[in-house]
# Entry
Amino acid sequence: MSAADVLIIGSGGANLASLRYALERLGARSEVSADPARVASARRLLLPGVGAAADAMARLRAAGLVETIRALRQPLLGICLGMQLLFEHSEEGDTPCLGVHSGTVRRLAAAPGRPVPHMGWNTCRLRGADALLAGLGSNDHFYFLHGYAAPATDRCSATVDYGEALCAVTARGNFHGVQFHPERSGAAGARLLRNFLEL
# Structure
């Protein structure tokens, strides 16, 4: 793969070093850019995110990337907050998001034995065929770290149980998202990233 095959959208606040290293281990070179022209012309894109939805959306708007992202036809993978930004709205900061998927991202409710944020390893329940999940199953563990979550709609190809079923993997056309961090999820995360690179 060449650097042009994987572009990481520079939305700020992301753990870019570990993500770029995970891609490098798979033989994929990556570049980071918030330039709309480079984003529009990339073959594959990652939209990572760590931090607050309002801040991330403000950075995307300031860079002129909101309409660029909405118009993409090539594969895009949103990671953690990046997946949440694909939905219409987030309760975090009462934030309008990209609107690729319908629904509102809501704050998780804490309960005894179930603190917020949801942090640590968890399995996912697969709900149907998704090329992003090829070779993965219900015994594979992924690393989660989030205080907000998207609803488990028919756009979710996998859910995670944290007091209720939450969206863990989502897909609509060329737009894909994962609530967990594949770059921190060992062999299962590497397989998912490899699947994305092969879309």
